[in-house]
Amino acid sequence: MELAIKHRADGTRRVPPMKFALWVGLASISMMFAGFISAYIVRMAAGNWLEFELPSLFMASTMMIIMSSLTLHGAFISFRAQKEMRYKGLLVISVMLGLSFVILQYLGWMDLQSIGIDLKGNPSGAFVYMISGVHVAHVIGGIAVLVVALLHAFGLPFIVTQKRIERLDLTCQYWHYVDVLWVVLFLFLTYYR
Amino acid sequence: MADVVEDVQAQEKLIEELGYDDHFHEHHKQDKYASGFISKYVFSQDHKIIAKQFLITGMIWAIIGSAMSVIFRMQLGFPEESLTWIKPLLGKWITVDANGMGTLNPEFYYALVTMHGTIIVFFVLTAGLSGTFSNLLIPLQLGSRDMASPFLNMLSYWFFFLASIIMFTSLFLNTGPFSGGWVAYPPLSALPEASSGSKAGMTLWTMSLVFFVVSVLLGGVNYITTVLNLRTKGMSMFRMPLSIWAFFITAIIALLSFPVLVSAFLMLILDRGLGTSFFLSEIFIGGQALDHVGGSPILYQHLFWFLGHPEVYIIILPAMGLVSEVLSVHSRKPIFGYTAMVLSMMAIAFLSFLVWAHHMFMSGVNPFISSIFVIFTLIIAVPSAVKVFNWIATVYKGNIRLVTPCLFAIGFVSMFISGGLTGIFLGSSAIDIQLHDTYFVVAHFHIVMGVAAFFGMFAGIYHWYPKMYGRFMNETLGKIHFWGTMIGAYVIFWPMHYLGMAGVPRRYYKFDTFQAFADFSDMNKFITIGAIIVFGVQLIFVINFFYSIWRGKKQTTKNPWGASTLEWTTPIRPGHGNWPGKIPSVHRWAYDYSKGEREVITQIEPIGEDEKLDSH
């Protein structure tokens, strides 16, 4: 899969085109969540809104995903610094943390279910399920990309090339994005009820 | 045009001397782009092939979508006539009574109206117009080898194809395709028990459109990245042709507004499938109370029109860009007010996000909020008028060649003025009380974004046909096509303004129970006859298009229109990578026509010593 025809005619290369394309795509994803959030705000302003506490597991999952971002960043730095073992180890840890985020979110939904907040009934609950659910879908997409990175890490000989740095960089950028996105959503859902 | 031909030969030398060598062909010899039939014509990653794929898929949809309108126009124009003859096509949707009188099923009438709107708005005027010309022209006019990501570009087309297949399948469902209007307002769209079209038809409709949005976004990411990152040497942003500006701004609008539509669709899907109540409040249906509580259907309208209004600019901006280009080339004059054109497009794009509630004046929106939306809506008239003024000023005293693409471009301006003026009426929330949901609205948006966008598209097709196929379309058939469509479009939509002002509501199956509307049955007949003729005229275009691919007049010179932009510096049939050797470098803006003694100076020519250096 050859992604880019890279050339800048004047010889300078600022942002690699694929990285820029990723940012544009992320802006687009952000707009979808902005759609959800504005629907949430408008619907809440209309009254008849059920208030409830978010499950404490969401706090734990937030910690997990923030940590995974840090470890992934560490993996990226190690890769560039040619530290093979640290790169591979941190990459594995990042994937595990990512998976645990998804599991914790799932357990969090179970907790919500058990206190009587379900998809049906007052939309305030449905909004939480939907917003966190669509976010998890994006995290799972991120995990898929991380798995590809894992395959590269363990399947290919350890050679640090510009192309592989760029590729890992894209993976990291997306992962940091879903991380920051969740922190924003979490804070929003916690404080705007 | 002898001097133009000579220029073309000099061009090759210019590219060789001043061009930029990216060593493209050293890496790409015998590459996967050109090997084998499948990778060359089917799963192609070449932007020119992808453009043709978008165009031809769009044309097929245009034929289906407009054929649907002919059928429901026959119902409106001739409600008493038997439609038995069309039963072989529509099957059970035509009910034949004992006397052999065939009537169109009312449920299916709504499905036709819905599908007509969905197909034309999304599949033809978004994918077929912006998909085709963004793909064709962005790399060619910017001087790049291909899109930033040819692979994502290919995916973009195939997601559109998938969306098409799903939508096409829904036409054959036993319960019929979705029938709740192209806007798919809940609760009608959210409740499968509300109408037969809201059952499987709606499920497929939402699936199809979600895939469609994925296609638009993949395309848009590519367009934006390519425009910002892959311009050739010397091609600064303000030397880009206006067509590229239009595609660029269109892609930005699409990327910001379509995701919001997806969020609305996701909520709708959850309401339909999992029993959530985002858009559904306490509802009785068939005497039964549903267990949905606390939702708001108006919320859907807000989300939908937050896309829906920018969507009309997603449709019209590419047409505007193409028209600017075509008018300037064929009137042999620089575009008037280039910078003003760019700024107007930016202003339109910005304002398009602030006017969505003008579609909802009568939905119970607070009148004080309405007045804000009225103001922003009327402000959009300003940049639109700037553009119209500039087009007219471009043509004024030009050395106009009245070839088919030019005629369509002039027709576009005419349509945009007529339709734009009625927009000012509808943008006023007070007048909207009378006019909302009437044929006045139908007339307005068909002229300003339907017919006008089609005219832009036709101008583009006739103009860039040689670039796509190395041949010309037949000029006589083209002129018949233009005059038939131009006169026909006014014949169809002009009378609708009167219907609308008299209060005739849109979307109705027939009007026989309304004494007040009985006077209009002749007018409805007139409109229907016009629609049938115009449909026939479009078939001439389709025949001309496919005939000319193989039998059209051959293109013998590289730059048959004498245009200044880069796409005409490639070989007549450009291969993968567009330029055989180096990429041309750019030394001036795209509109040096009739400068001094010379009819046209291409962008690749350096500024001469005796030339006055202008701001571009």
Task: Describe this entry's structure for a reader.
The complex is a heterodimer of chains A (193) and B (616). By secondary structure, chain A is mainly alpha-helical. Chain A has a single domain, classed as Four Helix Bundle (Hemerythrin (Met), subunit A) (Up-down Bundle). Chain A contains five helices and no strands. Chain A has helices at residues 17-45, 57-80, 84-114, 123-155, 162-191. In chain A, α1 runs antiparallel to α4, α2 (57-80) runs antiparallel to α3 and α2 (57-80) runs antiparallel to α5 (162-191). Chain A is elongated and about 60 Å long. Chain B is mostly helical. Chain B has one domain (2-277, 291-600): Cytochrome C Oxidase, Chain A (Up-down Bundle). Helices cover 62% and strands 3% of the residues of chain B. Chain B is built from 17 helices and eight strands. In chain B, the strands form four sheets. Chain B has a two-stranded antiparallel sheet with strand order 1-2. Chain B has a two-stranded antiparallel sheet with strand order 3-4. In chain B, strands 5-6 form a two-stranded antiparallel sheet. In chain B, a hairpin with a 2-residue loop joins β7 and β8 (598-600). In chain B, α10 runs antiparallel to α11 (338-352), α10 packs antiparallel against α13 (404-426) and α11 (338-352) packs antiparallel against α12 (367-395). The model of chain B has no long low-confidence stretch (mean pLDDT 91). At the A-B interface, α1 and α4 of A face α7, α8, α9 and α10 of B.
CATH architecture of chain B: Up-down Bundle
Task: Kindly report how far apart the N and C termini of chain B lie.
Answer: 26 Å
C-alpha-based Rg of chain B, rounded: 25 Å
The CATH superfamily title of chain B: Cytochrome c oxidase-like, subunit I domain
**CATH topology of chain B, anyone?**
Cytochrome C Oxidase, Chain A
Instruction: Estimate percent helicity of chain A.
Output: over 70%
Q: Residue share in helices of chain B? A: 55-70%
**Residue ranges of chain A: pLDDT <50 for 5 or more in a row?**
1-12
> In the CATH classification, which architecture of chain A applies?
Up-down Bundle
